[in-house]
## 1
Amino acid sequence: MNSGSASMVECFSSIQGEGVLVGLRQAFLRFSGCNLSCSFCDTPGMTRVPDECLFELTPGRRDFFGVPNPVACDRLFSLIQSWTVGWPGIHHSISVTGGEPLLYAAQLLEWLPRLRELLPIYLETNGTLSDALSPLIPHLDYIGMDIKLPSASGCPDLWQEHRAFLKVASQRSVFVKVVIDQSTEEWEIERSCALIAEVDRAIPLILQPMTLPDGSIAISPLRTLQFQELASGLNEVRVIPQTHKFMGQL
């Protein structure tokens, strides 16, 4: 695969349901593949590259059509450009998400400067690939990075990777998201807060209660408040569930 094309899952227009940009309309570019395997992943099948990427012809109308993978930057640029011309002002930014989009760092280095001519760029990432992030920093406007807690995610110890990533990401407007459930332990919240404070305690922390497949929340209201209290040493701590699921958005 050359730097001008990448394997993607879908490109669509919807409402951002997580993090500090919650409620804003975005153009979503979902890349395939991930370097982690989180137990709560809401985009299963990311290890398989689909034969086609689904493009939404009309923003928000779910009139999808298939484009063979890998997708060329020119094809994607033309689609987003048609949205900005035909429906000016409806999108706040472009969400580059996955999977883990930084697996395509070489492609993004070519793509992002062009896409940023249309809209600001928001990177959603698992926060582990700092070397891939570094050359992309000049082309990003917002970064939402996860800290994967071992209890909720089932992932191994990633603290060093997250620390290195946040130091690079702090050059841009960044926030940290932590998925919590009833199994989350207090030391995990305390360690996450210490990691953030080491870089900049003004970086917002989002505590995201896990949403189960049936739509229920996997943590009690009291436990959620207790975790928010533990994180009160940071300047900004918010509790935000996956609101797009409540709204029936993609």
## 2
Amino acid sequence: MQPKLILHGGASSLDDKGGLDSVRSSLREIVEEVYALLSQGESALGAVVRGCERLENEPRFNAGTGSVLQSDGQVRMSAALMDGARQNFSGVINVSRVKNPIHLAQYLQQETDRILSDYGAAELARELSVPPYDPLTDFRLREWQEERKDNFSKKMARLIAEPEPRRGTIGVVALDQEGRVAAGTSTGGKGLERIGRVSDSAMPAGNYATDQAGVSCTGVGEDIINECLAAKIVIRVGDGLSLEEAMTKSIQEALAHQTDLAAIALDRRGGLAWGKTCPVLLAAYHTGERIGDTLELGAEESAGFIAV
């Protein structure tokens, strides 16, 4: 089967893409590298882990290095991984001082206890001898310091670690040569949030895959949880809707609820889809024949689909 790949670097309610050329360059470089792995026979799960790792390592995105700070000035990250072939979900919630939360989620794929919160995730990192790592960047520290002056009046931090946009998560969905689907999502959270707040990224609401389809979400986590968006789209595909129909119906419902979110998806046949209720979705994809992205979609373009 021709592998397919789609990934994202976040979504925003502000119509600003944070340096279009630099974001596009980062996303496309990662798409090319990860798709090359799929072409060489890498599994969907392995490709998703590598894609998330690369996005976590890119300081401009809100995951791993460059994650936003919570209201107390601490970085707490969450990540999830789902193997659609085995319908196996794993994740970590509010973990600190690790470079790649997706690696912990990957390890937990083989465990019986597959979702760990802050203390348990920290214990796992020590158990695995993961080197301590500070993901804080100067930009995110300055951002937090500025917000502190205003008593954290803004609802969340910036999407891209550059002077303009706000909010984000990263995610990858892959289809491999064997027809297997996997999805992964990682985030630093909203930024400036209440201590202990849990995002959608380490829940089936924000990251879900079966042998039929996979979805990764981004945007306001509470909105994504309310919609149970990722699981809803995938389940609708399993119930017989096409990926395009499932995405369109789910996004229309989310629009009616005045949400602020986005999703990327693919199905086992190789169809690619995305949808959004906000102006900006930073996503890129590889069809096997070409690379494309969603960076210049208009605010009114709520959903898109590329057939097999």
